[in-house]
Amino acid sequence: MSVKAKQVIIAVLGLVFLASLILVQWMEVIRRREEAGLAPHRVAIPVSSMSCVKCHQQSSPGIIDHWKGSTHAVKGVGCVECHQAQKDDVDAFDHYGATIATIVTPRDCSRCHKTEFTEFVNSHHALAGNILASLDNRLAETVEGARVPFNPHSPTPGRDDATMVNGMASVNVGCKQCHGSKVALEASDGSLITVDELKPDENGKPTNPEAVAAVRRDADGRPLLHESSWPNTGIGRINLDGSRGSCSACHSRHDFSPRRARQPENCGKCHLGPDHPQKEIYEESKHGVAYRDLREHMNLNAHEWVLGKDYTQAPTCATCHMSGHSRNGGRVTHDPGERISWTNRPPVSLVMDTDAEGRVIKETDPAKRREQIASSWQEKREAMKQVCLHCHTKNYVNAFYKQYDDFVINYNEKFAKPGQKIMAGLREQKLITPAQFDEEIEWTWFYLWHHEGRRARHGASMMAPDYAHWHGMYEVAERFYMELIPQAREIAEHAAESGQSDQAAAVLALIDEVLARPEHQWFEQEKKAREGSNEAANDSADNASE
Amino acid sequence: MGRVAEWFAERVPISGLELRELTNEPVPNHLKRWWFCLGGTPAYLFVVQIFTGILLAFYYQPAPNTAYESVRFITEDAAFGWYLRSLHKWGATLMIAAVILHQMRVYFTAAYRRPRELNWVIGMCLLMATLLTGFTGYSLVFEQLSYWGATVAANISDAVPVVGHVAKRMLLAGDAYNALTLPRFYILHAAVLPTTIILLLVVHISFIRLHGITELDDGAASQEAGHYDFFPDHLLTEIIIGLVLMILLSVLATVLPAMMGPKADPLVTPEEIKPEWFFYVSFRWLKLFSLSFAVLSTGFIIGAMFLWPWIDAALRKITRNEDISVYIGILATLTLIGLTVWEALATH
Q: By the CB < 8 Å criterion, does A367 face chain B?
């Protein structure tokens, strides 16, 4: 080959090489634009899901567009990968040649996300479905609605479909949407088939063939999910395969955005309102204020989002309770209870010593208690302190926890335990009925601990002074002194009038015992002193007139 | 001569013409065929490796708790990081392939024979240094496979009689993989081995210049006997090869970029441990025999490779067959390819 020919070849190859570098630059620009959210990222539609995407793009484009925005779409995880089912799954059906199920359970997600699944099932979140048939649920099932359908008072003008009223409506759209439903299939005899009937084995396969055979299916062979249990993304949903929870409670389908799960608004679907306004409390705190101002700098799109590496501007709910940080090697947890040292959920706050199954230990005997502890509250607090230390000094953090502990203990000892004692006394003496919420004092007590008491304690836990005080302890105190005590006395006095003098005396003695304690003495000290002096004055007047 | 040129000529008294004369060695005509130019290919790729390696070293942090994250940062966050890492990865693959192909060409054309025996030994040292560089580089990523690959390699070296245990301790900086292991691999990969390769290359090329390029000694070559100039003719050929290599590397880096495997977990042994492709042959060999036999036989084979120029001379004398090395070479190549493919296809 001549030198001239070689020079030509070099020129051509040089241009090709230059073109390859320009291609690399172009790829880098595209990548940066995708990361900055200025361009949609590339989507890899797996062959198995191509027909799903094609059809649903027309019929339900929202699902497809959300999915296209997910990491799943980038990594080639399509519809079938998550919705796939086996023929022996009770909710499986054939959908254009693919065997799928409508509901994707945590067990399905665990095919790829094993660690997250394990952490989640050990969390309190996974047990949220236990509220069904509890005290709270009695409110929605019985007080707000009715456990059995009832006749309407009169037809609703414009609607001719109202035959019977569904008294469970409040439970279905209220409680269950946060706590989770017990997913139910319709049976051909009109009854419901749940995990209780299916009795799934450890692999989630039903072991009761009769229950499986009884499932009612539509003309296409699709099993019918009962509307009392689905749609539902409650975090403690009890699924047909025996698994608990719903990953989409926090990782909304179908984009499963980590960015969204990192923001407090995500938790705000459930953690807000009068009884546990954690989101509003957070917003009032310095943490929330900093977040609102600096969220654009918090690198919320980061791959791992490690506190101390990817951001330090402000914490969100996820930061403190779940996310990885520079002091724990970036390890994320899907058990938000791992760093919580007090549970402020019950009437009287408890320290978060938990057993092997993650349940809060209520044992009072110290030796037995020690035996049961798998994870102590001190360990959990230390884990939380490691988060705090990214922005605060050790002295600051320790002093905060002293303030918080003192606050919770003050609430427990001054109002919660006495209140609990008085309510138990009334019940023991049979001065109130065993049924909940049929007497005014039960509502009073419920407001005291369930709404105001929690607001106060959560306010203290997240440094929101207004919630700790005005929305919290102030209202607790008012409810205690101005409603609970007078109502309890009134019940006792009525009882005494109707001949139950012993029972009434027992309750009144209990109230007096509570109020005689130094922390309550201020309340009636002066009134009693005044009553005493009035009585003495009356006596002397009587004597004089005699 | 301009004033600037004069200024330089005074301070750097080297004549361009003399330098050109000195380096313009006549190149045998058979080098016009590209496969005779494979010797320059690893050198090219070595330059690419040094260039990309330096840029990667700006971000890489060689410690167990930072290594994987820093590689992830390079791959996913740093500007052009994915491209540089992919170039480095594919550069290593091509460099090792080029070294092996170059060695096979030298072997089958018997270019190692007297008086070039020592340069063959230098070449063998270069092969070993290149493989070690590949191994240590692969370990730096701190993925499950690279971590367990390094652990297995250390255990293998432990099986070598007498020096094995010391070698293992030197490699791992202790009896087991520990916090000092990665920094040690890093120093070997980024400083010790590249310096060794550069020194060996200087000697290797010097020998070539001193001996001259081997003249081809067969019937076909006689038709193309004669020489052509290094400047500019052969230099242009080398530039073409270099450009083709760069384009190939760029295409591989963009079409098949380097990915991240799962992070190393000392508590979880992967179901399947596989080394990099260039160790498939020895890995399969290990699986075929007992550990001690496999290690001893591997040592024997490598020793024979080092001493091959003299073994070959002896064999030719004994068998009176000038082509005996070709037959052995074909057998060895087929075994090498066979074992590599076998390991590549095998799941366990």
A: no
